[in-house]
Design goal:
heterotrimer; A mainly alpha (263); B alpha+beta (127); C mainly alpha (320); A: 263 residues; mainly alpha; Ferritin; globular; B: 127 residues; alpha+beta; Ubiquitin-like (UB roll); three-stranded antiparallel sheet; 3 strands; elongated; disordered N terminus
């Protein structure tokens, strides 16, 4: 069990839920964007380098909005950077799937597709949030995520159908990621509280539609849907894979090496 | 420097010179395409509703959908686009520079197609 | 002189006069072989520089100190990829294929700007590259917007328009560092010390010693001499360094009242040639990185093509 995060004692319980919820969404976008940006200058074509960079920029932009908002809700003087650069792993609430290494291009496209479909559905629902800020961010983000889903889906079809090698690689990426998709739809206490308060989304309700959209593309790609066996989770509670520590070591290096400096 | 324009007019434009009279470099033929290379597409972008699509450049893509996606990322990162057309470069038929004078010079002398050709008194308005 | 040779000589004279008259050449127009070759060499080299240039800066994307900086740097490196593509597409109008250019880069036959063979060990290098390297590149590129070859000129107009943010971004980073803590200021000065001379050398050897300068000037490919461009850059940059409160690593740098320009110390061209010949700190690393990305991506490129071909085959079969 992870040690409970440091709390701002003066926050009302509802505001605390709002803060935790915004951090959860922001962290997933941040770590995902960080991972995706690792592709820069390594992509299979220069055109794809730009495409992956654009998607990383979308995610970093979403992270900034969610974290900046979380900081405002908290009223403890933390901005987007304080939250991104000055927390340790057990305070991060991102989904485990986004902290896994990129793998090859097939693996990355499988994740872009899985997360693209998931986040489109999540943000579509969140657009109806009773919290105007969250609804506003979601309305902007849903367009971006729909594009990620489309781009990733088209690539999965190309790879699944392309050559023997590409088919095998796409299937392997999918197989490796599949166990972590379970966590997308588990309901954390923060999420159920946020849903009850009318500003958050209970992700378990997104599962059926996600299944349908994913199955459709897998069929077009000639890829098989992996078995549901191992179902790791914990990211939403701050229990992470070993990967996150290294991501943060890189992400936070300058802020940690030069405390208090302005950049 | 003064004599250069004269020299220019003294010789036919290279466009007008028959191709066979010019020694061709081996590079001046059509673009050579490796069979493993993604085909080339020409990209046309409508920057705003009400304007026509304009040629923005070219790019490589394996298929037309990818060409649209690449064009979106390569040519519209700064909100330059409202609509994109992509066309396989091989699908474009173009006039040859050799035909420039034959095709376009005759129009130069049809001055009566322009409003300024006609004399109308200044005091008559709305013409 | 046989008939064909005479035609070519006459055409060559016509061509020289035509471009001297500031008229533009378009892809299918006749052009001297040497003009075509010069352009292919210059444009592909320029495109390669953009693509290789993604590496030294990409090196800091995952470590950028704030999210604002991360987004700005990522967008900048993306622009470099985009500029590489605009330029490859301009070169392709001259009859060279993208595959040929990729091979030229990877085989080491083609050059790219030597500036990218220097390392970026600190965050301040990102500031220094934006400020100095992009500053020098823009100085170089603005005249190219008026180059005689239409597609190259049009690509450069686009590039210059987009690059103006790069230099400002770099200067802003330097400003923050040089007005920050003592450690940050030290970082900024260290980066300036390392990048100043390589940036000054980006304009190439003095025109007296440059093999291609005179012909390129006559053809309106090159519009301003290397030395004049270098002087513009120096004059502009010295004042910017003063504002940062940083010291130029050149004890001989001084204002020359008579010329109305800054004089700089002797340039150590031996270092320049060492890097051009492949022995800079990062030449091998940069090419190996590019080669790896190319090799790792091969199965993806093949798969996309195979899928496209299968789709065409399926459509043909269904139509039959």
């Amino acid at each position: 069990m992870a040690v409970a995060a440091l709390k701002n004692d003066t926050l009302s319980p509802d505001r605390q839920v709002l803060f935790d919820y915004a951090v959860m969404l922001g962290d997933t976008a941040l770590i995902h964007g960080q991972r995706l940006s690792e592709w820069t200058s390594h992509a299979p074509t220069v055109e794809l380098d730009i495409a992956l960079g654009n998607q990383a920029l979308d995610l970093i932009g979403q992270a900034r909005m969610f974290l900046e908002y979380a900081g405002k809700v908290e009223e403890a003087g933390r901005d987007e950077d304080a939250l991104a650069f000055l927390r340790d792993g057990f305070d991060f609430r991102n989904l485990l799937i986004v902290e896994l290494p990129n793998g090859d291009f097939g693996h990355t496209m499988a994740r872009q597709f899985i997360m693209g479909v998931y986040s489109s559905l999540l943000y579509e629902a969140l657009s109806a949030s009773q919290d105007d800020q969250l609804a506003g961010i979601a309305k902007k983000a849903v367009k971006e995520q729909r594009y990620h889903a489309r781009h990733g889906g088209e690539w999965l079809v190309r790879l699944g159908d392309g050559t023997e090698e590409s088919h095998a690689r796409a299937q392997r990426g999918l197989d490796e990621l599949w166990p972590y998709t379970h966590e997308l739809f588990t309901t954390d206490p923060v999420e159920s509280a946020a849903a009850e308060l009318g500003f958050g989304v209970d992700p378990s309700g997104l599962r059926a539609e996600w299944d349908g959209l994913v199955d459709d593309v897998l069929a077009r790609a000639g890829l098989s849907r992996p078995e549901d066996d191992w179902q790791p989770d914990g990211g939403k509670r701050g229990e992470h894979t070993e990967n996150l520590g290294y991501i943060l070591a890189e992400l936070q290096f300058l802020q940690r090496a030069y405390p208090g400096a302005e950049w | 420097m003064r004599r250069l324009p004269m020299q220019t007019s003294a010789l036919p434009a290279p466009h007008a010179m028959p191709r066979e009279r010019i020694s061709k470099s081996k590079e001046s033929n059509e673009t050579m395409t490796d069979k493993n290379e993604w085909p080339l597409f020409e990209v046309f972008i409508r920057s705003k509703q009400g304007l026509a699509h304009q040629h923005a450049g070219s790019l490589h893509a394996a298929d037309a959908e990818m060409a649209i996606e690449n064009a979106r990322d390569v040519y519209t990162r700064r909100s330059e686009g409202q609509s994109i057309w992509v066309v396989p470069s091989t699908a474009i038929t173009a006039t040859s520079p050799d035909d420039k004078s034959v095709l376009f010079d005759p129009a130069d002398t049809k001055v009566y197609r322009h409003p300024t050709f006609y004399d109308v008194p200044d005091e008559v308005e709305c013409l | 002189m046989n008939e064909t040779t005479r035609d070519v000589v006459e055409l060559g004279q016509w061509f020289d006069a035509y471009v001297a008259d500031e008229k533009k050449i378009e892809p299918k127009d006749w052009m001297p072989d040497a003009y075509r070759k010069t352009l292919v060499r210059q444009i592909s080299q320029h495109a390669h520089s953009e693509v290789i240039g993604m590496q030294p800066e990409g090196n800091w994307i995952t470590r950028a100190p704030t999210l604002r900086r991360k987004a700005g740097l990522l967008a900048k490196v993306q622009d470099e990829a985009g500029h590489g593509l605009y330029l490859y597409s301009a070169a392709e109008t001259l009859g060279v294929s993208r595959g040929q250019m990729d091979d030229g880069l990877l085989s080491g036959k083609d050059k790219y700007s030597s500036i990218f063979n220097y390392p970026t060990p600190t965050w301040a290098d990102i500031g220094a590259i934006g400020w100095l390297v992009d500053g020098a590149a823009i100085t170089n590129q603005i005249p190219l917007c008026r180059c005689s070859y239409g597609p190259y000129a049009r690509a450069m107009i686009r590039v210059c328009k987009e690059e103006s943010f790069h230099q400002r971004q770099g200067y802003e980073i330097m400003l923050r560092l040089s007005h920050g803590t003592a450690e940050q200021k030290r970082m900024a000065q260290d980066a300036l010390n390392r990048w100043w001379w390589p940036a000054v050398m980006m304009f190439g050897p003095s025109d007296k010693d440059s093999a291609h300068s005179a012909q390129s000037m006559a053809w309106r490919i090159k519009r301003v001499s290397n030395d004049d461009l270098r002087q513009r850059f120096v004059d502009m940059t010295v004042k910017q360094a003063d504002y940062l409160g940083l010291t130029m690593p050149d004890p001989d740098l001084k204002w020359n009242e008579e010329r109305g320009h800054y004089d700089i110390g002797e340039i150590d061209w031996s270092d320049f040639w060492k890097v051009v010949k492949g022995n800079g700190p990062c030449n091998r690393q940069r090419l190996a990185h590019r080669q790896k990305a190319h090799d790792d991506g091969e199965w993806v490129r093949d798969a996309a093509l195979a899928h496209a071909n299968k789709r065409v085959a399926r459509a043909t079969r269904d139509a039959a």
